C-alpha cells in the first residue's frame, strides 16, 4: 500500500491525497452513524483528469474505490467497508457550473456541485431545475444522479434519470467517458449513460452532468386535504390529476401518526384543522403565470372533492407564508423521526392503485411479527413511493430497531413484492438493502447486471460490498 500511496501523492499532490488518520476519520461514517468502514486515504481531486490519474493507479494496484458525494444517502452506499486498503474519492472540490444555456435549456455542471446551488443558479437565469429533495443544500448532483434521486416533484418531472441529457465519467481503468452531450435526440446506438445513472458508484465515477431545465413555475398554490383512508387519497389523486394535468407538481401523503411526531418534536408548527384525521394529502399546483386562475382551479377541484366525499376537510394556502407552513408539516417528518429515535426505514414503491390494499395487509403481517410496533407512513403518493417506516413500541428501548430490523424488513419486503412493487424507490441499495436486493431481484436481471459489472469493472474495485 505504501508504494501505491507514494505514487498517488506524487501524481496528485499531498493537498489532494490525505493520508493522516485524523484527516481520514470524518469520511469513514455515513451521516446517520449506522455504517463505518476503513480507508488508507481520502482523495479530493479538482479536475476530471486528476480523477482519471487516480483511477489508473487504483486499477494498476487493484485498490478499491468508494466515491463519496454529499454523504446524504440513507443506505450506506458512499461509506467504505472494512477493507483497510480502500480509498475514498470525494468530488467536493469539483463544484463548478460549466454552462447554462437558456435557449437549449440545459445546465452542465461538475459532479460535486450542491444541488441547491444548481437550482438557485437556474432560477437566476429564469429557469427551473425541478429535482428537489430534503437534502438539496448538502447533496451533490453526482450523487443524486448515481442514486437516481427522486424527491417531491417526480409526479410532474420524473426521477433524476429523466432530467439527465449527458454524463462525463471516469471508468475503473482511468478512461474518460465523454458523454456530456446536451442533445434531446440522439439515436446512435445504446444509451450508455443510463448504465451509470443509479449505479451507486459501482461502474465508474461520474464527474460531470448535463441536465435539462424547464420553464420556471413562479405561481404555486397548495392545499392540505384531510382524508379518512389511503383509498380516499387514491380517489382524490384520480380527480386532481384528471382536472389539473401537468400543473400537478406534488401529491404527498402522511398519516396522523406522522403529524403527531412533527407536532411533538418540531417547534413553530400548528395543527392544520380543528379536528384530527386519519391521514392528510398535500397537493401543490404550479404554473408559469396567473396565480388567481391557478388558485381558482385548485379551489374548484377541492370543492368537487368535498362534494364527492373524497376528503373530509381542506385548507388552501392564501399566502406564501401559509404555503410554507403547510409544506413544513410534510417536510419536517424525517427530522421528527430522528428526534423520536431509531426508525426502520423502508423506501418502497408500488403500483399506485395497490397502495390502499398494501397498507392494510402489510400492517396485518407486521402485527404478527411485532404486535406493538409503531407505523409511520408518508411519501410521494402521486408516483407510488411510500416511506414505510417502523419504530419501537411505546416505552421500548432504542435498541429495539437493531434487534428487529431484519424480521421487520423481511415482512415489509415480502408484502411489497406480492403487490408487484420495488424494495427501493429512490434511496438505492447500498449496504442496507443488498441482501434483500439479491433475494428479491429477478435472477435473469441479476445475471445481466453482473455481466455489465464485469465489463466495466473486471477487477471489482468500484464500491465493493454495495449493490451486487
TrEMBL record:
<dbReference type="GO" id="GO:0003824">
    <property type="term" value="F:catalytic activity"/>
</dbReference>
<keyword id="KW-0285">Flavoprotein</keyword>
<dbReference type="InterPro" id="IPR016164">
    <property type="entry name" value="FAD-linked_Oxase-like_C"/>
</dbReference>
<dbReference type="InterPro" id="IPR016167">
    <property type="entry name" value="FAD-bd_PCMH_sub1"/>
</dbReference>
<dbReference type="Pfam" id="PF01565">
    <property type="entry name" value="FAD_binding_4"/>
</dbReference>
<dbReference type="GO" id="GO:0022904">
    <property type="term" value="P:respiratory electron transport chain"/>
</dbReference>
<dbReference type="GO" id="GO:0071949">
    <property type="term" value="F:FAD binding"/>
</dbReference>
<dbReference type="InterPro" id="IPR004113">
    <property type="entry name" value="FAD-bd_oxidored_4_C"/>
</dbReference>
<protein>
    <submittedName>
        <fullName>Putative FAD-linked oxidase</fullName>
    </submittedName>
</protein>
<dbReference type="InterPro" id="IPR051264">
    <property type="entry name" value="FAD-oxidored/transferase_4"/>
</dbReference>
<dbReference type="Pfam" id="PF02913">
    <property type="entry name" value="FAD-oxidase_C"/>
</dbReference>
<comment type="similarity">
    <text>Belongs to the FAD-binding oxidoreductase/transferase type 4 family.</text>
</comment>
<dbReference type="InterPro" id="IPR006094">
    <property type="entry name" value="Oxid_FAD_bind_N"/>
</dbReference>
<dbReference type="InterPro" id="IPR016169">
    <property type="entry name" value="FAD-bd_PCMH_sub2"/>
</dbReference>
<keyword id="KW-0274">FAD</keyword>
<feature type="domain" description="FAD-binding PCMH-type">
    <location>
        <begin position="35"/>
        <end position="216"/>
    </location>
</feature>
<dbReference type="InterPro" id="IPR036318">
    <property type="entry name" value="FAD-bd_PCMH-like_sf"/>
</dbReference>
<dbReference type="InterPro" id="IPR016166">
    <property type="entry name" value="FAD-bd_PCMH"/>
</dbReference>
<dbReference type="InterPro" id="IPR016171">
    <property type="entry name" value="Vanillyl_alc_oxidase_C-sub2"/>
</dbReference>
Amino acid at each position: 500500500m505504501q508504494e501505491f500511496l507514494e505514487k498517488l501523492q506524487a501524481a496528485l499532490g499531498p493537498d489532494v491525497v490525505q493520508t493522516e488518520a485524523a484527516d481520514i476519520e470524518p469520511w469513514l461514517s455515513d451521516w446517520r452513524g449506522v455504517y463505518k468502514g476503513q480507508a488508507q486515504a481520502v482523495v479530493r481531486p479538482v479536475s476530471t483528469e486528476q480523477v482519471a490519474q487516480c483511477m489508473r493507479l487504483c486499477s494498476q494496484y487493484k485498490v478499491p474505490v468508494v466515491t463519496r458525494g454529499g454523504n446524504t444517502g440513507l443506505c450506506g452506499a458512499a461509506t467504505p467497508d472494512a477493507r483497510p486498503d480502500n480509498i475514498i474519492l470525494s468530488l467536493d472540490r469539483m463544484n463548478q457550473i460549466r454552462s447554462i444555456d437558456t435557449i437549449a435549456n440545459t445546465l452542465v455542471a461538475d459532479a460535486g456541485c450542491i444541488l441547491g446551488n444548481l437550482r438557485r443558479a437556474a432560477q437566476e437565469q429564469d429557469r427551473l431545475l425541478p429535482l428537489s429533495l430534503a437534502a438539496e443544500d448538502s447533496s451533490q448532483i453526482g450523487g443524486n444522479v448515481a442514486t437516481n434521486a427522486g424527491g417531491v416533484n417526480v409526479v410532474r418531472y420524473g426521477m433524476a434519470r429523466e432530467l439527465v441529457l449527458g454524463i462525463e465519467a471516469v471508468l475503473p481503468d482511468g478512461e474518460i467517458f465523454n458523454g456530456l452531450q446536451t442533445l434531446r435526440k440522439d439515436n446512435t446506438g445504446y444509451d450508455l449513460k443510463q448504465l451509470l445513472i443509479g449505479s451507486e458508484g459501482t461502474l465508474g465515477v461520474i464527474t460531470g452532468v448535463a441536465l435539462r431545465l424547464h420553464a420556471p413555475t413562479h405561481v404555486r398554490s397548495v392545499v392540505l386535504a384531510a382524508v379518512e383512508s389511503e383509498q380516499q387519497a387514491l380517489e382524490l389523486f384520480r380527480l386532481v390529476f384528471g382536472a389539473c394535468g401537468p400543473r400537478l407538481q406534488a401529491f404527498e401523503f402522511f398519516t396522523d401518526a406522522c403529524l403527531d411526531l412533527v407536532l411533538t418534536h418540531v417547534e413553530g408548527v400548528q395543527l392544520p384543522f380543528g379536528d384530527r384525521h386519519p391521514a392528510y394529502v398535500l397537493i401543490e399546483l404550479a404554473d408559469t403565470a396567473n396565480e388567481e386562475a391557478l388558485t381558482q382551479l385548485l379551489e374548484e377541484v377541492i370543492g368537487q372533492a368535498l362534494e364527492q366525499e373524497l376528503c373530509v376537510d381542506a385548507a388552501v394556502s392564501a399566502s406564501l407564508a401559509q404555503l410554507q407552513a403547510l409544506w413544513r408539516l410534510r417536510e419536517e417528518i424525517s427530522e421528527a423521526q430522528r428526534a423520536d429515535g431509531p426508525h426502520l426505514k423502508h423506501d418502497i414503491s408500488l403500483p399506485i392503485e395497490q397502495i390502499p390494499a398494501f397498507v392494510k395487509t402489510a400492517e396485518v403481517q407486521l402485527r404478527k411479527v411485532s404486535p406493538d410496533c409503531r407505523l409511520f407512513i408518508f411519501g410521494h403518493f402521486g408516483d407510488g413511493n411510500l416511506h414505510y417506516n417502523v419504530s419501537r413500541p411505546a416505552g421500548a428501548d432504542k435498541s429495539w430497531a437493531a434487534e428487529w430490523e431484519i424480521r421487520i424488513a423481511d415482512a415489509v419486503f415480502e408484502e411489497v413484492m406480492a403487490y408487484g412493487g420495488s424494495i427501493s424507490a429512490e434511496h438505492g441499495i447500498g449496504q442496507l438493502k443488498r441482501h434483500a436486493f439479491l433475494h428479491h431481484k429477478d435472477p435473469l436481471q441479476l445475471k445481466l447486471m453482473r455481466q455489465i459489472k464485469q465489463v466495466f469493472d473486471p477487477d471489482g474495485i468500484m464500491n465493493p460490498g454495495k449493490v451486487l
